[in-house]
Amino acid sequence: MHSKIQAAIASFSAFISVRMIAALVPIFVFPVYFDAYLYYVPAGIAYVKGALPDSVNPEHPPLAKYIIGFFAVYLNNATLASLLFSVLTAVVAFYLVEKMGGNGSIAVWLLAFEIETVSLALYPMLDGFMLFFALLGLYFIWEGTRILDMMVGGVSFGLAIASKWEAFFLAIPVLIFVLSEKKWLAAGLATAFAVLTYICSYLSFIAAKGFGAFIGLQIWMGQFALASHASIATPIMILNKLVGTFIFHTTTYGRVTGYDSGLHPEAFRLLGTNYISFADSIGAPVLLLYLPVMYWCFRKWRKSRASRLVVLLLSGILAWEISLGNAIETWFFAPGAIIVALTLGLVMNWRPKLRRVDYLYLAIAALWPIYAASLILVRIALYWTAI
Fold first, then answer.
1. What is the mean pLDDT of residues 350-358?
2. Which of 20, 169, 310, 313 has the CB geometry, 3.0–4.6 Å to 297, for a possible disulfide?
3. Gap between the Cα atoms of 340 and 309, Å rounded
């Protein structure tokens, strides 16, 4: 017990230190998400001051924006909310991996240096809050030995969906996992509490305009999501998405749109008009293990309960990417990076001793932001030289 406490303290210290250092130089290393301050912070402030969820930024559920608004209005710091929830996510990740029989310190170490998950600590994006609640729900549902666990897990996933709809792609695989174990009552309770929790996030709206208006808003949100992100599922489009997803998860490259040699001097042409950039969406090497980890877990499908869950979760994220397009976005990248980091925390702990290659991998993951920063600084220098 004493060693686990020491490991937890060391993990969280590294995690928080990286977050604090990153906050000093976010523009050089980490993606900048202006959406947070253009849409989510103003919406959150408006909600806290009495605006209804259909009046400002209605395309997303309101819970995460309420949290952002509370920190912005009462603490005068919306970013503090994302930093706090980022640390809480690391705490849940640590104890979830330990509960599953793995090494929580390794999982937290990887997340501490993963660029997209660090970015979620620097900007009040909805994804960070959604991922915390989803991971918390997974923590309670993992064992599911008590009815209360499933109820709390359902509430947690309801909060995740009430933060951002993309949580469906994590909640549905978890529901399939519970059903595969023939826990019918548990699955029903978790689903019911998730639905009730989601509805409760709109209580102010329902009280003001009625339940019919709530249903109408949900239909509009679904139509907006399809119009904004989904595309016609022609064979060519599906193939293009599959190829794009494969490239994304077997490299550290980001696809460049609107190529400009002044802005992207390091980019090179690939597959016709597509350009690939080292610096546009570059994360820790944890991304490189996305598909190999999924393959490894699939091989152990029948022998390992944890492997079945990981395969379902990663399959959900892949379905999410393929159905919503090839955009290299944090809402695709961060969930996959978290699940892979959790899995590596399991895999490395199942071995009697860590081999040299494992330590090398952890070291590379820690140094990766320096490499990304150097590429981006070269890009900026070349751009200013050109003009």
1. 61
2. 310
3. 12
Confidence of residue 305 (pLDDT cuts 50, 70, 90): confident
Residue 90, class by beta-carbon neighbours within 10 Å (0-12 exposed, 13-18 middle, 19+ buried)?
buried
DSSP per-residue string spanning 60-103: S-SHHHHHHHHHHHHSS-HHHHHHHHHHHHHHHHHHHHHHTTS-
Lowest pLDDT segment from 28-42, 97-111, 155-169: 28-42
Amino acid code (one letter) for 254: G
Model confidence at 112: pLDDT above 60? yes
According to DSSP, the β-strands at 254-256 and 268-270 are unpaired
Q: Coil, strand, or helix at residue 261?
A: coil
Map out the domains of the chain as residue ranges. 2-386
pLDDT tier, 352 (very low <50, low <70, confident <90, very high otherwise): low
What are the residues whose beta carbons fall under 8 Å from the beta carbon of 76, sequence distance 6 or more?
none
Distance CA 118, CA 352 (A): 31
CA–CA separation, 256 and 280 (whole Å): 7
Q: In which element (H, E) is residue 274 found?
A: strand 274-277
Taking the C-alpha atoms of 232, 233, 234 and 240 in order, what is their torsion angle to the nearest 10 degrees? Answer: 100
**pLDDT tops 60 at residue 256:** no
Q: What is the DSSP letter of 38?
A: I
